[in-house]
Amino acid sequence: MAKVIIYPTNSLILSDLVQRFGHTPIAMMEKIKEKISTVGVDSPPLNITAEEPKLGLKYAAVEVPAGVRGRMAIVGPMIEQADAGIIVGESPMAFGCMGCARTNELTKYLIRDRDMPLLELDFPESDDEGQDFVYKIAEFLKSLPEKTEEATE
Question: Matching InterPro entries, A to Z (predicted)?
Answer without folding.
Answer: Methan_mark_5
